[in-house]
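On clarity, I found the account of how folds are encoded harder to follow than it need be. Since the whole study asks how a given chain folds, the encoding of that fold should be made plain. For illustration, here is how one protein appears when written out as sequence plus structure tokens:

:::
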Amino acid sequence: FFQVARGAKFNPLDFTASDGTEYKITDPNADLSVTENPVDTSKAGSSSIVRLSATNKKTGKKITVSYTVLISPQSEQTLHVKSWIPAFNFDPQTKLPAQIGSAVFRNGDKFLVTNETKIYDGASYTKVKPNPSSSSLIRTFDLVNSSKDSTPKKAVTKMIMHKAIIYNDKGKATSKTIPAFKKIKVNPVYQSIGSQAYYELANKSGYIKVGNIDGTKRVLIHNAYIYRSSDRRANSKVLKGWTEATTYGGSFKFKNGKRYYRVGGPAKQYVKVSNFHS
């Protein structure tokens, strides 16, 4: 996520963020090209997804990468979230954002969005001013999602791909779990609780981490086999290096001491963690 000032010039591979930081997107091992650039900096408060194609110089393999651009909003903003999202400030020792104890932004809160935005430890944060006498940080991810249509959507059916713990609305684990490969109904728009993304169960009984359902796309650094156990392959298929594969939930430790990600099911399908880009 990046935040760009209203009316600024925008080049998807070389642009300046709203705080004046210049970002150049390059890869010494790949040729980059822009496949989609819907960014319109005249539209204050809008967000757009930029998509790039990366072609590996050695193998010719292509992958698609993307990032989101937020155009600095004008005037006072109203937060539209399910319940609350965390507030951050700077830790004077680590020089990184830290959650402010129990302080949160709640649905309906009003604040001004500043042009001060930085990327710290892999995540983007924007400074907002809840009132003239104080300021704190909000994740740009949350700021973008807050501006989206908050109209309730009809529940959808999804399959659990990795045994899932049910969490409460504070992100605390309960004693309840849902087994892998069971179909459940969830609200289709996931939400942020703390640092994680969750689907809310349609019956309002709790939340499940998105990674246990939709999975996480990861890039393979070389060809990889699919296993059913530590010493047996699931099939003869070979996943090609520098392509994406979807993994589900956390990794499993097999009897051989190595860790594997689930890549399918209900038949057993796993790929070694070491085959993926860290």
Remarks:
- The longest strand covers residues 110-120.
